[in-house]
Write a structure and sequence with these properties.
Blueprint: H1 4-20, H2 29-32, H3 35-49, E1 53-59, H4 63-68, E2 75-80, E3 84-86, E4 89-91, E5 97-108, H5 121-127, E6 128-139, H6 150-155, E7 160-165, E8 181-186, E9 189-195, H7 203-211, E10 222-224, E11 239-243, E12 249-254
Parallel strand pairs: 1-10, 3-7, 4-12
Antiparallel strand pairs: 1-2, 5-6, 5-10, 6-7, 8-9, 8-11, 11-12
Length: 255
Amino acid sequence: MAGMAQVDHAARALAEAFVRGRLMAPLPAEVAGDDALAAAVQAAAISAVEAPLAGWKIGATSARAQAIMQTHEPFFGPVFEDRVWEDGAHLDLPAGFRGFECEFALRIGADLPPREGGYRRDQLAIAIDAVVPAIELVATRQALDGMGNARLARADLGFNHGLVLGAPLMPPPLDALSEATVVARVDGTEVARGRGSDVLGHPREALVWLTRQGVALRAGDLVSTGTCTGIAALAPHQRAEADFGPFGHVTFTAV
């Protein structure tokens, strides 16, 4: 699996499964055990999808999520422009749908080219132009038992299917995010809750981490910082709701 031909083959299969909403066989075991190989497959899969990027998602930003994903640090994946929807959307669920997550997205207001060591908190504070309440639809392209691990998730386009966005908050209330209470509901019934501090202590810390990974960020990019509530199950014809209290409210309905 280590050769470029094998990486390209895996990437093309992932891209086709992503576009068609289908499942494929799990990636080879080598990917699950090799950070560099997982990164190479993801990069090739992004190119193979051939769609503009809206930004990035970050996963495994809480201790609970890291335990599930068998990792000690986050992972990231792409968010494509045609997989970003407005509050109240009605959406088909893909074959590999695992659930939804309630998270804060940060909108970047200035280009942030890769920099050795990433960017400091104060530098990012002035580069963020909005906080956006969001729901992430989590899905695999692989027919996995369970969630696999963080390397498989990274290769598999970050297990991201898309984002549903609420109204952006400007100026961004960054200092208050760690104290925010976030509630996930299905058809009006609470199924999970958490706090902004569940995301690496503060959602901004997820962005700090991402800038240390060599990712180029552009003005207008969205960075979804990881779930505050864990992942919640959703079936067709049910309504998902993320309640961020004073920071906003987001819903979508599965069809």
